[in-house]
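Bench log, entry 3. Co-assembly request; chain sequences pasted below exactly as received.
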Amino acid sequence: MTTPTIKLAPSILAADFARLGEQVREAEAAGADRIHVDVMDGHFVPNLSMGPAVVKSLRPVTRLPLEVHLMIEAPDRYAEPFIKAGGDRVIVHAELGDAARRAFAAIKRLGAKAGVVINPETPLAAAEEYLPNVDLLLIMTVHPGFGGQAFIRETLEKVREARALLDRVKPEMDLEVDGGIEPETAWEAVGAGARVLVAGSAVFGAREGVAAAMERLRTAAEAAR
Ligand code: DX5
Ligand code: ZN
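Structure output for the full assembly:
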């Protein structure tokens, strides 16, 4: 078998919160590369999710990196508590401008990793100034706020554009997509150049179970390479 080149980042937003630790362990056993933690504040997105206490509880449960996707208006205020709780990488929305810049400065000061994320309607140019200071570029393939939405195909063009840009300026950087990823859209996203797939419903909502669902995603994704 060839070495897998696609990384899977299951999003616990779709997990059964009553069995969260168990679900994370299942994802780890099934070969997840990292765990994606979706944080929402009811302002930047119209939904609420989880805070640093969840990251703190998960930290001793898994050896996988915990990546914290901050869908909040004040990432500069909350990056630190998430890192102190055990978050390995904090992903910040470029749309926030100065608050994003302050958040990246705080993340760097605390020695954690950083990622930059852009919404479906945000041009790639909005993320460019942050690229030298981050090791991950995340392209939202749905409007953030809820799991279980349909993949927005128009974002594939931006994934292609991002792939071309990174190949030129920072080829080792992770290019990740988030939202509506199931086997078919995984294949499309990887074909466009994505190498890390966030998936919530397709992993934790699958009737076939976490391991089988991840295997199907991986097979579809690797077929596009
Ligand atoms: C959306 C979140 C996603 C979400 C993806 O606001 O950022 O990470 O959990 O869920 P699915 O895979 O169900 O689209
Ligand atoms: Zn997310």
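The mean pLDDT is 97. Residues 11, 13-14, 36, 38, 69, 142, 144-149, 178-181, 198-202 surround D-xylitol-5-phosphate (ligand 1) (CB under 6 Å).
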